[in-house]
Amino acid sequence: MDDATRTSSPRWPRVRTPDPTLGRSSRPEMKPVSVERVPGAPAHAKADVDPPTKPKRQRIVLDDGPVAPVRPYLHSRSELAQQTSWGATLIADQIHGLLKIGVLFALLTVAVVGGLPLVMWLLPDFARLEVVGVPLAWLLLGVAPFPVLGGIGLLFVRVTERHERAFVDMIEHRG
Questions:
Q1: pLDDT bracket for residue 55 (50, 70, 90)
Q2: Rounded to an integer, what distance in angstroms lies between the CA atom of residue 95 and that of residue 163?
Q3: Tell me, what's the pLDDT at 75?
Q4: How far apart are alpha carbons 148 and 116 in whole angstroms?
Q5: Is 41 part of any domain?
Q6: Which of 45, 79, 94, 159 could disulfide-link to 87, CB 3.0 to 4.6 Å?
Q7: Domain range holding 106?
Q8: Are 101 and 163 in contact (CB under 8 A)?
Q9: What CA–CA distance (Å, rounded) separates 173 from 175?
Q10: How many C-beta atoms lie closer than 10 Å to residue 137's C-beta?
Q11: What is the spatial distance between Cα 133 and Cα 28, in angstroms, rounded to a whole number?
């Protein structure tokens, strides 16, 4: 590719001409201005003016008044915010507690929902029972799990929120 093609092609950057003011001072040249002198005050007017006096010194105190006591829970909050080893231990304990609650509720859910088909398999006579013309197995496996799962979910949320509230109360030293 020759230089003529390179410069005419829009893909190649064009070479800009340098700024003519480059390297020069950005201030315009200052020309001296002529100042007209004002005549002084007459001699009889100078006697009437009092000499300037210094203002009386005043002491200025910048005080906001009494300082509020330091809250005791700020130490624990700063430990958490600064991610110190103590703060990391507090967070790890919180996560461990929530994990334990989650695993327990998962096992409860598996036992309740997974136990229904097991009961139907172990007790075939129980599975053949009908309620209002509908097999009991269909009712227990198709309808009953939804309110049970909703109840387990609600209970899980309440227990975890109680655990988190206890953690916050411990951090803020609320008995």
A1: confident
A2: 10
A3: 63
A4: 12
A5: no
A6: 79
A7: 101-171
A8: yes
A9: 6
A10: 19
A11: 102
Q: How many whole angstroms separate alpha carbon 11 and alpha carbon 36? A: 63
Count of domains in the chain? 1
Look at 2 and 154; give whichever has higher pLDDT: 154
Q: What does the mean pLDDT of the chain come to?
A: 77
Nearest C-alpha neighbor of 170 from the set 72, 28, 35? 72
The per-residue pLDDT for range 6-36, each reduced to its tens digit, is: 555 556 556 666 666 666 666 666 677 777 7
Classify residue 69: in a domain, yes or no.
no
Mean pLDDT, residues 74-95 taken together: 77
Report in angstroms the alpha-carbon separations of 160 from 76, 100, 101, 111: 21, 10, 7, 20
Residue 157 lies in a domain: yes
Please report whether residue 112 resides in a domain: yes
pTM assigned to the model = 0.50
